[in-house]
Amino acid sequence: MQISALPKSARPREKLIEQGPEALSNAELLAIFLRTGIKGLNAIELAESLLQEQQTLQRLFNASLEEFSALKGLGVAKYTQLQAVLELSRRYLKEECLRETVFQNPTAVRDYLSAQLRGLGHEVFMVLYLDNQNRLIKDEVLFHGTINAASVYPREVVKAALKYHSAAVIFAHNHPSGVAEPSEADKLITKKLQQGLALVDINVLDHLIVAGSHCISFAERGLI
């Protein structure tokens, strides 16, 4: 059945306008993005089929161009549209961090870091440089690869923090394995970084680990 033949209350666009986006299912939201279906499937049915095949939105959104284009009803044009939407979301979340101090809206910080780091196939180590009112000056990925004492250099972190005239920093890195619990290597390098930055009067406010939909805070665990 074509979507136009459905009752208005069951059409994703009309439902969103009347009830708000939070009232829509994942399939209905995805159907709005897809706009059209394929032979034998309307946009909602196609969305349901894609979600059933991929199991999660995250897996679908993190697919490479080749993987994405191989799925029925999708292709290069849809891939570029999706990447544009995801990048707009990341930039929106970054604006939230820039507009407020990080402790006025810690959820925005978590959302932003999760949007930046989840789904990556390799580990990256990111630093948020903050001013003396805990507002974001800049964020930067400093290191790539497994996070341990051999790959994260305190000297480089201190140099970068001084370069941006930081009063405080927040660290973040991802666990592609999906296990959010901090490892002993995570704890060790965090202590070393704290010690190095303390010598130049720069506070480490937190270290966040992003693993899939989970985000663990060292500060909340009492590890900082």
TrEMBL record:
Keyword NADP: no
Ranges of residues in domain MPN: 102-224
UniProt keywords, alphabetically: Hydrolase, Metal-binding, Metalloprotease, Protease, Zinc
InterPro entries: MPN, RadC_JAB, RuvA_2-like, UPF0758, UPF0758_CS, UPF0758_N
GO terms under biological process: proteolysis
PROSITE patterns cross-referenced by the UniProt entry: MPN (PS50249), UPF0758 (PS01302)
Signal as UniProt keyword: no
Lineage: superkingdom: Bacteria
Gene3D superfamilies in the cross-refs: 5' to 3' exonuclease, C-terminal subdomain, Cytidine Deaminase, domain 2
Pfam family, any one: UPF0758_N
Gene Ontology MF terms: metal ion binding; metallopeptidase activity
Homology family: Belongs to the UPF0758 family.
Name under which the protein is recorded: JAB domain-containing protein
